């Protein structure tokens, strides 16, 4: 699947394509204008859906001008459509027993279903981002026969994914000139009550996730789409396209589950900060 949007500025090519990484169809974004010398690699926050950031990234690269290009992607298992988020069988399968390959990058279990460890774990999402960058670098070398300069821009937990992959891949780190992390982070100095609620939810996910997905299913079934749209607009989401994306995503309960499972692991893995920010 691909789409083009040439309405912002005619000379900038804004291109979206669905590509498979770690066995999962993944929405990607490319913004180009001529031959670039520097690539901006964007990793979003959870829920990791690149479509929300298209206008934001377009404005950035337009202000930087020619010589810069953007590459971004959604998370594995995050987006619109069952081919992206996984089927009901994928979500209920336990994945116990022998696998075709113990490597996380082999994303099929012995029964031929998708490996939910890719979208549901921090480790799986890191492998997913590494495969994406490796493809970008291969394509660049084939087209330009040189190495690009890299700038990482990340949002929220995307910062953790970027730092983790750079620690594992010195060859990517050597090409990296700047790393820019965008707020907010879910664990960034929350109020005491919110800290306790977040920790409780993370360590009680066997109860909280079914409750939250069931609530989402009831709300999206009971409420007309235009009511949900009006509510999102009242909450400050002025962008019509952004509201459409939000409704498409959160009316898919499998996508909601992927978002929640990964978010709960994020809370458990990263934990609470042991410092207080003073401004």
From TrEMBL:
<comment type="similarity">
    <text>Belongs to the AB hydrolase superfamily. LDAH family.</text>
</comment>
<keyword id="KW-0378">Hydrolase</keyword>
<protein>
    <recommendedName>
        <fullName>Lipid droplet-associated hydrolase</fullName>
    </recommendedName>
</protein>
<dbReference type="GO" id="GO:0005811">
    <property type="term" value="C:lipid droplet"/>
</dbReference>
<dbReference type="Pfam" id="PF10230">
    <property type="entry name" value="LIDHydrolase"/>
</dbReference>
<dbReference type="InterPro" id="IPR029058">
    <property type="entry name" value="AB_hydrolase_fold"/>
</dbReference>
<dbReference type="GO" id="GO:0016787">
    <property type="term" value="F:hydrolase activity"/>
</dbReference>
<dbReference type="InterPro" id="IPR019363">
    <property type="entry name" value="LDAH"/>
</dbReference>
<keyword id="KW-0551">Lipid droplet</keyword>
């Amino acid at each position: 699947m691909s789409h083009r949007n040439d309405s912002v500025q005619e000379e900038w090519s804004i291109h979206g394509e669905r590509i498979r990484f770690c066995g999962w169809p993944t929405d990607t974004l490319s913004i180009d204008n001529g031959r670039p010398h520097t690539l901006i690699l964007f990793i979003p926050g959870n829920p990791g859906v690149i479509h929300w950031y298209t206008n934001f990234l377009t404005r950035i690269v337009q202000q930087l001008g020619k010589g810069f290009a953007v590459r971004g992607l959604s998370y594995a298992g995050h987006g619109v459509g069952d081919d992206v988020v996984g089927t009901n069988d994928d979500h209920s399968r336990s994945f116990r027993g022998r696998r075709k390959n113990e490597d996380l990058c082999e994303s099929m279990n012995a029964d031929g279903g998708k490996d939910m460890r890719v979208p549901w774990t921090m480790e799986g999402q890191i492998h997913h981002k590494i495969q994406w960058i490796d493809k970008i670098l291969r394509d660049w070398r084939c087209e330009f026969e040189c190495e690009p300069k890299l700038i990482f821009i990340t949002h929220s937990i995307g910062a953790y994914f970027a730092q983790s992959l750079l620690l594992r891949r010195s060859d990517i780190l050597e090409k990296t000139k700047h790393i820019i992390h965008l707020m907010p982070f879910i664990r960034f100095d929350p109020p005491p009550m919110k800290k306790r609620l977040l920790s409780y939810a993370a360590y009680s996910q066997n109860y909280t996730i079914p409750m939250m997905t069931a609530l989402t299913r009831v709300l999206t079934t009971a409420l007309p789409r235009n009511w949900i749209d009006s509510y999102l607009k009242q909450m400050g989401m002025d962008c019509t396209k952004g509201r459409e994306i939000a409704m498409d995503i959160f009316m898919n309960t499998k996508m909601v589950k992927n978002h929640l499972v990964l978010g709960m692991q994020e809370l458990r893995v990263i934990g609470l900060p042991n410092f207080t920010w003073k401004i």
